[in-house]
Records
---
Amino acid sequence: MNVPAELKYTKEHEWIRVEGEEAVVGITDYAQSQLGDIVFVECETVGDTLGAGETFGTIEAVKTVSDLYLPVSGEVLEFNEALEDQPELVNKDPYGEGWIVKIKLSGEPELDGLLSADAYKEII
């Protein structure tokens, strides 16, 4: 499993990459492998400010639908529109082209509560 060291992770298998006052969020390589072939990604929360742990969208695979949880509080700025036509990008490149949303961080990011790459590897 690919678990990049520079990212932070949640127990629900989301990752976050902080870029100044903004951050990029997606699901981990482990999560996409467990879901199987992803056929649809939905995010109707663009423009909404959500708390850490709140649902920001859903991801649908051939066999299941899963909620997507925001790792930290913030405003959902952008949904990766490439996923509308190519949801399989999450399977092919979960840490790159398969990112799901960009957020504007609310105040101090709650990164301390997130898992390091090593800690995440221990739970998978």
---
Amino acid sequence: MMPIKHLLHIKSKKDEVFDALSQPDKISKWYTSIVKGKFKLDEIVIFEFVNFATFKFKIIEYVHNELLTMECIESDIPVEGHVMKYELDENDGKTRVRYSYNGFLEMDDSYANMNFSSAKYLESLRQFCQKGVGEAFGSKNYRS
């Protein structure tokens, strides 16, 4: 499999970044405006991208302030079985985020699109954590 990997640093405390990754009201400010569910081990969360796709993920790893891993169990596009992972630690006064997305069998157009989208939303996460304003899909700040 061909993983997508990104590494970024956010000038915010680790618990603030983890909250932005695991609380629906905060995720809706930087990722997509419609988020449902509880971010706890074995729970199902739903990310809705209106007029595009809906994704259901199962939380498969959850370590508060350190690790969040989700597996797609249902989607309108062919990404079932794909896994997103966020690992957090502190580095030089910032929160380091190691992001990985696994599930692609080849580096095709779908891989390229998800790689770009992942980077765009991770930058939105950084802006939300550092400045309080992200670019969630469906929000007034979203760049289409």
